[in-house]
Amino acid sequence: MQKQRLDKFISNQLNISRKDVRTALKRGQATVNGRIEKDAAFTVDTDADVIIFEGKEISYKKYIYILMNKPKGVLSASNDKSRETVVDLVPAELKRAGLFPVGRLDRDTTGLLIITDNGEFAHNCISPKKMISKSYIASLDGEVTEEMCEIFGQGVTLKDGTKCKPAKLYPLDSNKARIIITEGKYHQIKRMFGTVGLGVNELHRESIGGLALPQSLEEGKCIEIAEKEAFSALLKVC
Ligand code: URA
Asked: Distance from the CA of 79 to the center of ligand 1, in angstroms?
């Protein structure tokens, strides 16, 4: 059983200000289990009560999971004084208090980013101890050799002495490569390629665990996904 004030519940679930919710409540625009409820402080059981606001039933979701195809030039953060963030790109109908990106992609990196308000899920996704694989396509300024694949497979030591966990590296056509890592150190992939003398021109994340970026999702766009689908990001895949 989850108890919450009626105005807070409606405001959180629908991303409407508490003030606007209270005004609508006074006008009799909400019912709880079929009875008009005007008291903003009325306590609802979010698991059991049927709450209708402005004619629509609110289905309670404790957490939200948003999948974004991150475009270049946007900061992986919740808010920033001067720069546009990934949370700024979330459309109003999906916005809620407490949204943040799960891990960080560099400003110039594109691709799969999960945005949520579930801290435990995010921790499980990004903690290096959990060994969740993140797969990227890198466009490089040179060719990937067999030897580089072996070095990456053994675990690269970065120029500052930081040791990376073993990674998988697969050469693709046109100086591109797929690289799969299970941790997220600062600029990790760019620094890893730096150790073998390659520069990264473009970087795109295609999947996290068992969750892949849908091909149809354009850069800068978001979709809400169900909790079950989001949790496929926590699956250990090779
Ligand atoms: N590694 C990087 O260098 N950049 C990213 O955005 C992600 C991984």
From this structure: 20
CATH number at residue 10: 3.10.290.10
Place of tokens 């209708």: 52
Give residue ranges with CB within 6 A of ligand 1.
105-106, 109, 187-190, 203
Give the number of domains in the chain.
Answer: 3
Please check whether residues 197 and 138 belong to one and the same domain: yes
Q: Domain span at residue 199?
A: 133-208
Residues 121 and 215 in one domain: yes
Tell me: the pLDDT tens digits for 51-67? 999 999 998 888 999 99
Taking the model in full, what pTM does it have? 0.89
Q: Which atom from ligand 1 is nearest to the alpha carbon of 192? A: 3
Residue 90 has a CB neighbour count (10 Å cut-off) of 19
